[in-house]
Amino acid sequence: MDKNSVIGFILIAVIFIGFSVFQSGQMRKQAELQAQLDSVARAEALQQQVAEAERLAALPDSLRDRPAAPVTIYKDSALEAASHAQEQIIVLENEKIRVEFTTRGAQPSSVLVKDYKNYDSTDLYLFKPGGAEYSLNLYTGEAIRTQDFNFQVAERTDSTVVMRLPFAGGGYIEQKYTLHPDSYQVSNLLSFVGMQQVIPRNVSMFDIDFHVTMPRMEKGFKNESQYSKLNYYFEGDKKPVEIGRGRNASRRADSKLSWFAFQQQFFSAIMRAPQQFASGELAVSFFPQDDPDRNLMTCSALMRAELPAGGQGSVPFEFYFGPNHFRTLKAMGHRYEKIIPLGGWLVGWFTQYAIIPMFDFFSRFISSYGLIILLMTLVIKLVVFPLTYKSFASSAKMSALKPELDKINAKYPHQDNQQEMLKKQQATMDLYKRAGVSPVGGCLPTLLTFPILWAMFRFFPASIELRQQPFLWCHDLSAYDSIVDFGGRVPLIGDHISLFALLMALTMWLYSKMTMSSQPAGNDPNAASMRFMSVWMMPIMMFFICNSLSAALSYYYLLSQLISIVQTWAIRKSIDKDAILEKVRASAGKPLPKSKWQQRLEEAQKMQEQQMRQQQKRK
Q1: What is the DSSP letter of 537?
Q2: How many CB atoms lie within 10 A of CB 128?
Q3: Least confident interval from 288-292, 364-368, 440-444
Q4: DSSP alpha helices (H): ranges in 482-524?
Q5: Is residue 111 within 8 Å of 468, Cβ to Cβ?
Q6: Domain CATH number, residue 249
Q7: Which of 75, 76, 468, 580 has the smallest C-beta neighbourhood within 10 Å, fewest atoms?
Q8: pLDDT in the model for residue 586
Q9: Structure confidence by residue, pLDDT tens digits, 59-88
Q10: Is 97 helix (H, G, I), strand (E, B) or coil?
Q11: How far apart are alpha carbons 2 and 260 in whole angstroms?
Q12: Is 301 part of any domain?
């Protein structure tokens, strides 16, 4: 492993460790704040109960037991009656989802995704009954919220339900929901019928208040929360804006936007306005890991939309309640697939046009996803082998030159003597030239493989195809595998040990040990430090990073390291070390052709030597 590779891995490790520390601090602050809010709410409720008890105790017995007179809240008698009407639950379902609607606000009450289960094998709800609120906020001579009223069921079929809220002054608000066959899509047509005399002429906007509380669905809270977020999309943009990713966030959009998505790691609730929302305020808030109800997050969107002219007309909306499956979302045609984190433009392009098609191709013929990952790793290694061969070959030749490098180190042992160090560098470079070895020749090909490593890092944790897919001892390739459970959290490690992460770290140690064995030992403290970082620190840091991540990711890195070990061993066996040494010794003392770059380098070294001699004379 060369210097650039080590620096790259160190930067990746620092970023992930820093993010983990920051996230844990944010979660602790959130839990403390929530505990304070709960304590204040309980104290206020207790004070209200005490005040009410004191008020009742001060009343005469004749008044204390008298029933309270009904209080009229709304000026519109039809609205007043609707506020006291009885709630009904209506169910629409197809092969994919089961949606419960309540007449209270004419809104979705719960969504069950049929083809999937939670990690504990219970039914998978995007939101449970009572876990969502979809309300219209409108001025009709008085401010109203549709969630406060029970709508009347005007029509109902196997795939459609129509609910209406009438007004005493004439007209009604209608909500029509249509569940498409064999689909995760629900169409929503909001209509204002005969409302010209109800809605004042100067009212041109209404608000949509959509709140959803999503429960936890996956094994690992950390991994699930890091890949859960809120997205919103402006028409014409390349990708949506995202907020959240495991921490509370809010954002205001002051211009028109097309849709927003409440996204859990593998499932989303998306709302789209074909005529676009005028503006909106969006927020996401995460529950602590020890939430007794096992909720993950609450997402909210307060969106503003334009009323039909004259209070008469319809406004269409669309909902998507389903999995974050790339092909399914892309088929919708509204860039929904962009919510899946595939990386930046280069990594995302490689993932979309190489990794996903290859994954889908193997999935047609093979049911074991562990075997699919193995085949993908082999294909990728074969494709990039022409790029990495030079790096492997240089490492093998340097292993053959180790005896000569040791002689050079013995000849120039003083690290504090700059003139001697220059001679050592010149002798080493001369040796490499005579052997046809470029010590930095493998850097660029190795760096070119980093987009592939990063693409895999983004692809596996976000791939719903791997969700709850078993392989060997692992029950779910999308989550971490555990062979040891501590029963409590341990700093840096967590509450478990992942066997795939442990094996990956061991193979990384073995590969680093193998590659570093070709390097001359010498007495350079910088070389010793690099060797320690490569052989020991990197495997340890990668274990800590991958211990709580997707088992598929650790498994891929494990396979990649094993294949690299085999390739290195095979190339070293194919190289004749004696022939390389004979070539070097036979050309000793003979001049070598020099490129212009080498000539300029030697001139610079000579000038440096002259400057050092002049400095010594002055001293």
Answers
A1: I
A2: 18
A3: 440-444
A4: 499-516
A5: no
A6: 2.70.98.90
A7: 75
A8: 63
A9: 555 544 545 445 567 788 899 999 899 999
A10: strand
A11: 44
A12: yes
